[in-house]
Structure to design on (208 residues):
């Protein structure tokens, strides 16, 4: 086991309750300096995000989120290939693991895809291709596109908070409108969707 693999295992260990910033920063450094760092890391994390252990899967997704903000363009390029994106699709799609995966894990996957297609397109167009396909098929829904912090709090708060969040979208017509906007290819509609997402996030946060 090389140093990068040791650090990745440590950062995603489901037994640990502590976030070690030194570890994740060292991971990012090794990814950017080792020739096969991005490919090796994504291959390992692609396996971990499909873990039946929810905590391990969420830890891996949160590590991916950090690395996507911290690492250089080579990592983003590998992240934006269907070789990796297909692993996220498997987690979300009922054709694969979607029915076996917890809502918190699926919501996190949906958020990451939403953020990546927003932040890295058009340089990495496959983010948008994967995201838009899942939206069109109804696999990613408006209720999943909320802030990472809100979803993390909801998962920690238990089922009552999750039920309250769901009630917002069931009774609020914003959800239907947001779904229509997210499926649009019109830039103006996407801008309206982002504004609507912000207002929905505020409603969700008020329940926590």
């Amino acid at each position: 086991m090389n140093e990068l693999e040791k650090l990745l295992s440590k950062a995603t260990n489901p037994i640990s309750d502590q976030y070690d910033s030194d570890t994740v920063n060292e991971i990012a450094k090794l990814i950017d300096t080792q020739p096969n760092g991005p490919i090796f890391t994504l291959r390992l994390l692609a396996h971990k995000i499909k873990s039946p252990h929810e905590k391990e899967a969420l830890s891996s997704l949160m590590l991916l989120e950090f690395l996507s903000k911290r690492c250089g363009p080579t990592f983003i390029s590998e992240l934006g290939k269907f070789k990796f994106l297909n692993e996220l699709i498997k987690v979300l799609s009922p054709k694969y693991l979607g029915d076996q995966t917890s809502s918190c894990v699926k919501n996190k996957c949906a958020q990451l895809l939403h953020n990546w297609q927003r932040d890295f397109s058009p340089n990495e167009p496959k983010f948008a291709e994967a995201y838009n396909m899942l939206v069109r098929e109804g696999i990613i829904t408006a209720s999943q596109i909320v802030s990472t912090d809100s979803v993390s709090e909801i998962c920690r708060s238990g089922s009552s908070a999750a039920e309250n969040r769901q009630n917002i979208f069931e009774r609020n017509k914003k959800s239907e409108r947001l779904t229509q906007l997210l499926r649009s290819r019109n830039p103006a509609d996407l801008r309206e969707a982002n504004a609507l997402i912000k207002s929905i996030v505020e409603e969700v946060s008020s329940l926590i």
User: Anything to note?
Assistant: Residues 161-206 form a domain with the Single alpha-helices involved in coiled-coils or other helix-helix interfaces fold (CATH 1.20.5). Confidence is low (pLDDT under 50) at residues 147-154, 156-171. The chain has two domains: 3-157, 161-206. Residues 187-206 form the longest helix (20 residues).
